[in-house]
Amino acid sequence: MKIATFNINNVVKRLDNLVSWLAEAEPDVVCLQELKAEQGRFPAEPLAQMDYHAVWRGQRTWNGVAILARGAEPVVTRTALPGDRGDSQARYIEAAVDGVLVASLYLPNGNPRPGPKFDYKLTWFARLIAHAADLRASGAPVVLAGDYNVAPTEADIYQPHRWQDDALLQPEVRAAYRALLDQGWADALRTVHPDGPLWTFWAYLRNRWPNDKGLRLDHLLLTPDLAERLVDAGVDRWARGEENASDHAPVWVELDL
Q1: 14, 16, 18, 21 alpha-carbon torsion, rounded to 10°
Q2: In sequence order, what are the residues at sequence separation of 6 or more whose Cβ sits closer than 8 angstroms to the Cβ of residue 73?
Q3: Which of 16, 107, 115, 188 places its Cα 20 to 30 Å from the Cα of 171?
Q4: DSSP SS3 for 198
Q5: How many CA atoms lie within 13 A of 106 on its CB side?
Q6: One pLDDT digit (tens) per residue for the chain, 257 residues
């Protein structure tokens, strides 16, 4: 099973990019973030023509998450992260696909900091850690995939000193990511590629893409049973170089199930 995560950065505007990548990469399951489309505008029909069935939670202008499954109907288990019934931001969706529980998440950016946006990021992260602990305790095979908006280590950013004040690199945020790993989750990309740059995001500004000045913000975390079945993982960098591309590239894992 090939499972991917892709911050599409506007699914309507970049539908052609998504379709092109799906045709080339042929993932079995795809987690999308930053749909930037309200619920009724998600392009389910053209995806269905490619045999991808979708579940999604849209939101006008910002946020939005989805799960696609090729040749299968995702069975939704959650459309929001537990822990705050008043949180209306569309940042989490969870579904079962062929015996694997898959979550698509879009963790808050947190900028500017200090301030309410950074506080919300830390609170959301704490809720994710709590829910991830419950998922681990359930014994189910789980993949937590998405844009975590955290560069976990200095090796995950091209020049850390240029981003030292950014919410993506703050000690509290990195500590929260480590807390997830300490529960027993495996960082799939780093499991397969322990060394070297693995950029998944290149900002549009200042020629960051042509100069390969990137960050690793998109992660797939696996429960131990799935980590034992991990065959390969990678980043489809070519998708970032396409016309009208998202500022993120798709990240994927292959599991021998």
Answers
A1: -140
A2: 53
A3: 188
A4: coil
A5: 27
A6: 999 999 999 999 999 999 999 999 999 999 999 999 999 999 999 999 999 999 999 998 899 999 999 999 999 999 999 999 999 999 999 999 999 999 999 999 999 999 999 999 999 999 999 999 999 999 999 999 999 999 999 999 998 888 889 999 999 999 999 999 999 999 999 999 999 999 999 999 989 999 999 999 999 999 999 999 999 999 999 999 999 999 999 999 999 99
* Strands laid side by side in the 100-106 sheet: 75-78, 92-97, 100-106, 142-147, 218-222, 186-187
**Domain 2-255: CATH architecture, name and number where available:** 4-Layer Sandwich (3.60)
Domain ranges of the chain: 2-255
> Distance between CA atoms of 220 and 122, rounded to whole angstroms?
19
Task: Please tell me the pTM assigned to this model.
Answer: 0.97
3-state secondary structure of 89: coil
Bridge partners, residue 78, by sequence: 94
